[in-house]
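hey so i finally got around to running the thing on that chain from the lab meeting. sorry it took forever, my laptop kept dying and i had to restart like 3 times. anyway pasting the input first so we r on the same page abt which one it is
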Amino acid sequence: MTKRLVFNLFTAVVAVAILVVAGLYGLHPAKSSDHQDSPAMVARPGADITDVFLFPSRADRGKVVLAMNVHPLIPAGMGPATFFDPGVMYQFKIDNVGDRREHLVLQFKANGVGANQTLTVYGPNKPNLMGTSSTWIAETGTASYNKVSELPNGIKVFAGPAEDPFYFDLAQFFKIIPDRDFHNQPNPPPPSADCFRKPGVDFLSTNGFNVLTLVVEMPRSLLTPADGKPGRIGVWATTSVVEGTPGVYTQIERLARPAIKEAFEMFKSHDRTNRSSPYDDPLLPNDIYKFMTDPRPAGAGRSPEVGKAVEGLLIPDEMIADLSAPGPARYLAVETRGKSGLPISVIRLVPNFGIYGIKKALGDPYRHFGGRDFASPVIDIDLGAIFGSLVPKLGLATEDHHETACLTSDNVTPAGKHFRPDFPYIGEPR
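ok and heres what got predicted. didnt touch it at all, straight out
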């Protein structure tokens, strides 16, 4: 049998395997989040961003969806009795030029407290200020609490309670890295576990916790630059409050890529990162490299080359998507030229030359949108990059043979989640 025939057979067999595993992934995606990551967020849960999403609309591929979840750990049955903080500016910041800075913003302000609460929506439009200070831009319309609202320019908004879509073995993670649990501050104990357990336990699903969610669906054209051509965008979410000058809001929380601060930064560093912009974060880039290269259990124990590759993959801390791609959402797909869209279990098994061959054989043009939807396997991708062979398999660094296999998955499935097929897509509150 010729080498060419062997390779063709190998590619065909693995392509079939990918389709099977991809189907399983549709049933068992994984996710991460950012609950209670600093003292300021513990003190003001209405400003605490837990998750950020960016994905194509399922109803109209000419539209895109941005979602931000806030106010973690709302008990079961209490979702409809929990309301947005009227003193907070909720904001999506969007780079549609490619210089990593915000050129569009989409802002939300809650009015009143109670079932009749409304949210004023501003933008998307050019910000009055760039950086960590913000003022309100021109108003677009008003959305009602816990109802789907239609606004001008083809914008649809839902602002209200929802099931928390985050699923992760949080309790075991805190045993592995105790510093990340705010309950352990200021003197965290040493690790009491060095592996994730099988099966994992989803803390939030088990307890039926909810969040408040802001979900916005809009034409992609509203996020394009002046030339009108949809292309690559970088998105991050912030919350801000008035701390000094009246009318000027100061940023106190920031989130884009899931699990980045929580995995790489010491808890005491989160507040400083939260109060910075992705393009001038004084801590996160170095903290990623340091955690990757520090020996276990203080870090991941990886080579400098792998550490630098992970830093380059995740910095700047912005959710990247290509609006010219048809979708669906594939976390880190833009940064990895689509290869992260392959099922993580396949990436672990297939050698580098096989990854390139499989991708070419499949001819899948849909792996390049990037972003993240409610079913993106971001925890396994993040853990695979930190503790596994994902980065070498993607061709970003040489294999260092310093993987920690039992940390490459938390072994949790989304069996307890109830995603909706239509807008706003996230599950109804428990």
